[in-house]
Amino acid sequence: MGFKMGIVGLPNVGKSTLFNALTKTASAQAANFPFCTIEPNVGEVGVPDARLDKLAAIAGSKQIIPTRMTFVDIAGLVKGASKGEGLGNQFLANIRETDAIAHVLRCFEDGDVTHVDGRVDPVTDAEVIETELMLADLESIEKRRANLVRKLKGNDKEAQQQDRLLAAAQAMLEDGKPARLVEIDAEDAKAWKMLQLLTTKPVLYVCNVGESESVEGNEHSAKVAEMAAAQGNSHVIISAQIEEEISQLEAEEAQMFLEEMGLEEAGLDRLIRAGYELLHLETYFTVGPKEARAWTIRTGTAAPQAAGVIHGDFEKGFIRAETIAYEDFIAQGGEQGAKEAGKMRAEGKSYVVKDGDVLHFLFNT
Question: What's the sign of the alpha-carbon dihedral 196, 355, 225, 115?
Fold first, then answer.
């Protein structure tokens, strides 16, 4: 089950520098001019999870396989992107394919790096991007509703549902608010997601600050924090410059560098954790002598669907899940100890998997 986070922002906010650091590649060209990233760059990163290493050590696993998150570096948007300015249409289409948006905001002062509007104002920058996404959604909705007219005359149930949801989104957008604020019933959730509206995607604001401000942030990031709280969104403070330096170091050196900077962990870890919370994701594990592996699911996923993340046949032929809580696996020294202590449970189709569960699935082929 792959999860994609689109990295967006105005030109020259440090977006591609951050992408390079996060994916530890140099595939995104970081340069001091707009549109240096013409095609979206895609990078996968292993999700850091100390629990996986502990499970592998106890089980003697030969291989450790973390779950992964995909980052998509989308070229800098500008005012007028919804009308095609600055290759806008292409970039907006790339955003549609992501699960969430990491909106990088320039919160650093640097006379050598040109701001597209000649000033540092992250809140206004955020409003520019949000406005362009809202305008693009409105245009898309108007076209879609016009195309539904014939089906609506024929009392097509699916078209009626789609038009009703599009109308709700349109009303919200015309009120100057993103479509994510529309309250959706459970029976409409799937159809709502299929609309792929840009402003329904959850937003994580990434405050890109200077090296010396990476711990506490600054007045710019404080304003972003205030804005995010008012919107019900979240934010993280990261120095793309620091992340770029860390990405060039070995693990031990990187840890020493972080300690010197007064940081407990790399920005990647904070960003991924914030992304997981934003997307309501959690992790379960499969552990054995061959490998210890992490798997990503949405919070509230039932055991058969969790099994399906490994392979569709696991879900189709699901019988039961042998389940050990992470804490019990560690405390009892592994699967056998947990079983002897009565900490292994047999769970059926209605069981909702919990974060950290160590699972073994039994299924019919």
Answer: negative
